[in-house]
Each structure stands twice: as C-alpha cells, then as structure tokens.
Amino acid sequence: MEMKKIKFVINGQPCELKVYPWATLLEMIREDLQLIGTKEGCGQGECGSCTVIMDGKTINSCLVPAVEADGKEITTIEGLARGDKLHPVQEAFVENAGMQCGFCTPGMIMSAKALLDRNPAPSDEEIRAGIAGNFCRCTGYTKIIESIRAAAALMEGRK
Ligand code: FES
Ligand code: FES
User: What value does the CA radius of gyration of the chain take, rounded to a whole number of Å?
Assistant: First the structure.
C-alpha cells in the first residue's frame, strides 16, 4: 500500500513526513521522529503511557493512525520545557516525587498539563478524573495528585 504525505506541527516545529496508512501516531512519534519520551505500554488504549496532546486534547497515540496528524498541532513531553527550564508540571513532579520508575510519567504529565490548561485550579476529584486514563503501577497516585496540586499553585503564582 502507498505511503501518504502528511504535514503537521510538532512541539512548535513544522514537519512533513510520509507514513503508511497502518502506522500509528505513536510509531510515527517514536520511530520516525525519534521522540522517545512518549512511551508504549499496552498498545491498546488502556494505560495512557502514550498520551500526547493533539489540537489541545489528550489522545492515546497508540490508537490514532499517523495519517490523522495531517494538518494538526501535536505536543509531546519533549515540547514542554523551554530550553533548560522545565514546564511547571514537570518541575512539580520532580519536587514532589511524583514519579518512581518514570514509565507512566510522560503520559501522566501530558494529561496533567491538558487538565491545568482547561481548569487551572482543579479539586482533587477533578485531578483524579483528569488522570483517570493514565495507569501508574508504582506510586499509588498520592504523590502524583500532590504534584498536580503543586503544579497548579506554581502556575497560578507565575501569572
Ligand atoms: S500504550 Fe497507548 S494506551 Fe497504553
Ligand atoms: S512511576 Fe512507575 S508506573 Fe508510574
């Protein structure tokens, strides 16, 4: 089957690629673009480790065909820091021990960022709902929720 040429913006950079119709967005991100911060866990839309933001919404990139990126704007974990300055959500995860093995962390941070962009002061219940699609096998979630609460405070303080 023929490859399709697609154009999109990823982490602020315009990009043009040829992809197979069966390739997933996750494969395109990790293999073609070598942005390996986005993780593959289940590969079936269950764990959230492959979460990226496309046109402002979180998606499981393992479920989305790469061709759907055509004309879209995508942000991965690599697009959050500004030079050596971490995004406040990343900073808060580091400061509040929001990660252990770190495998779920990129997806968790992308979901947290999208949540705080639409709701800058979420309740703990809203935080839990915001990361409901992201599984963590290590932390028990308490430190993750604390980290997201701290990120909200950091972002509020920098307005
Ligand atoms: S790898 Fe995509 S949801 Fe698990
Ligand atoms: S920190 Fe290990 S899976 Fe979440």
Answer: 16
